[in-house]
Design brief:
DNA-binding; about 210 residues; transcription regulation; Tet_transcr_reg_TetR-rel_C_sf; mainly alpha; elongated; TetR/AcrR family transcriptional regulator; Homeodomain-like_sf; 10 helices
Length: about 210
Amino acid sequence: MPEKPTRLRTDAAHNRARILDVAKRTFETEGLDVSMSELARRAGLGVATVYRHFPTKDDLVAEAFAEPMAECAGMLDEALADPDPWRGFCRVIEEVCAMQARNHGFSAAIVTSLPDQARFAEFRDRALRGFVELIRRAQEAGALRADFAVSDLSLVLLANGGLRSGAGAAAPAASLRLAGYLLQSFRAETAAPLPPPAELPLDVSVL
């Protein structure tokens, strides 16, 4: 008799892993707009099975991006630990752009507010707080231009996000070059007056 519950648990774990695998690959290549019913079809499962494991799409997004979000927050922590704030700032811009170029859904996930996903929100907020602090330190060190604003991160993501559709397989290399161009323009010693910052919230669409 105990074999049946064990089998059911094994099947449930397999289905959950299958859903997550399909969601990760789909979000990476197509972004977050794919429906739950389409994800279920690609996983070869009924949509009710998907909802049984992930009652909302936010639950699935949070789980699918838990690892890269934790990596992003950890990367900010390492950048803040760097005694050279400019080097830390450059690393963050380069790595965030690279992650976005590899993963179509990453930029949308990092700026998406999922209020019911406490752990996901914790990593997201930690990363954003770290970025704000890194800006402050780099500006105080005289390395980052004084008019760089937090909303400029959205500009970076918007510009870099277009590379995936426009550059195709060359997107990672193009992203690295774009980040280099941008970082040169962010240097304080080469700064020239700019128009005022665009008030772009960090939940702006960046796909």
